[in-house]
């Protein structure tokens, strides 16, 4: 069914999912849902989101016609060559980097995951390439990294290139770090170590190393929100490169003009691979649903797995949650929602 002229003149539905991690990029999810809405005669506005982790580069480049994608060879978490991307946006004034492109957990097999062995050096190489493009600002998305090295590998690369702070002064472009977790420095190993392959003994050793490292840093990251993000990369950039640490989801949503697009829409659709209690803790779907509730805009969700309990669904005022595990099901979910929203 094709949308009629009258239906297309109605306010669109704002389709604003995060990625379904390890399965579909946010833009793929958004396109499939939009196709479903169009099948049901509803106009839809695709607005893929991210929280600083996977999909941040795509979310920030989606609506920028001046985007230039660059690919370079860097070291992966084990130092092996890997091709990683960064982007120039805003007519070359801003660079966007996802550290997971270089040191992502997805680049390792289960057997290779060992945060006591891997290094963040590849992320440093990727950031350095962006810094050398003559931009005014570098946006660094954290999330999905394999490392808990306190950013030591990254800092070694940047220090050798003269890109760390000297005498407390910033050199080069502004660095803004988009964080997907609020964890402070000293909690990095405890919070992120197990998912990256660390057993309890390794977590204790990694924590000890980071506590010791903090004593020699330009600014002590202990107790500072976001400094533990990406196993300490956030804190390393904040302390040694003068970076600003920000909540990734809020930053991306503001950058893509989410609020204005939401107010111009009849409803908002959020989503991610798994929705659970962590969705409410600053992740993009929870932030988007909260903004919709505050603005009085109806909101629904589509996800791979719904692990929200009824109370959590009510907290962010989701009218309906539909599970969809592949692109065909996502399109069908959009078609179903076209009749409900």
From TrEMBL:
Record's keyword terms, sorted: Kinase, Transferase
SUPFAM superfamilies according to UniProt: Glycerate kinase I
Pfam families assigned: Gly_kinase
InterPro entries, per database record: Glyc_kinase_flavodox-like_fold, Glycerate_kinase, Glycerate_kinase_RE-like, Glycerate_kinase_sf
GO biological process, alphabetically ordered: organic acid phosphorylation
Signal peptide: none
GO molecular function: glycerate kinase activity
Family the entry assigns: Belongs to the glycerate kinase type-1 family.
Listed name of the protein: Unannotated protein
């Amino acid at each position: 069914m094709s949308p009629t002229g009258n239906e297309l003149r109605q306010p669109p539905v704002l389709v604003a999912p995060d990625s379904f991690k390890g399965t579909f990029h946010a833009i793929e999810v958004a396109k499939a849902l939009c196709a479903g809405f169009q099948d049901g005669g509803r106009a839809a506005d695709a607005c893929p989101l991210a929280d600083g982790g996977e999909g941040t580069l795509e979310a920030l480049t989606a609506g920028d016609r001046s985007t230039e994608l660059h690919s370079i060879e860097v070291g992966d978490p084990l130092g092996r060559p890997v091709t990683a991307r960064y982007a120039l946006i805003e007519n070359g004034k801003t660079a966007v980097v996802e550290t997971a492109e270089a040191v992502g957990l997805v680049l390792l097999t289960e057997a290779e995951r060992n945060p006591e062995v891997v290094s963040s050096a590849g992320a440093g190489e990727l950031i350095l390439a962006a810094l050398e493009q003559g931009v005014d600002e570098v946006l660094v998305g954290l999330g999905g990294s394999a490392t808990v090295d306190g950013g030591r590998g990254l800092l070694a690369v940047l220090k050798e290139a003269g890109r760390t702070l000297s005498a407390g002064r910033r050199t080069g472009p502004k660095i803004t770090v988009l964080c997907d977790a609020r964890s402070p420095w000293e909690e990095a190993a405890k919070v992120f170590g197990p998912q990256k392959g660390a057993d309890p003994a390794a977590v204790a050793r990694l924590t000890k190393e980071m506590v010791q490292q903090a004593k020699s840093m330009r600014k002590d990251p202990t107790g500072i929100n976001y400094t533990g993000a990406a196993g300490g990369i956030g804190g390393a950039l904040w302390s040694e490169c003068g970076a600003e640490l920000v909540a990734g989801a809020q930053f991306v949503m503001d950058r893509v003009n989410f609020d204005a697009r939401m107010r111009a829409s009849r409803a908002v659709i959020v989503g991610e691979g798994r929705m659970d209690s962590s969705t409410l803790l600053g992740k993009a779907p929870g932030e988007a649903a909260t903004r919709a509730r505050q603005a009085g805009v109806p909101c629904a969700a589509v996800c791979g797995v719904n692990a929200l309990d009824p109370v959590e669904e009510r907290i962010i005022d989701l009218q309906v949650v539909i599970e969809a595990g592949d692109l065909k099901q996502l399109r069908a979910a959009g078609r179903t929602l076209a009749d409900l929203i």
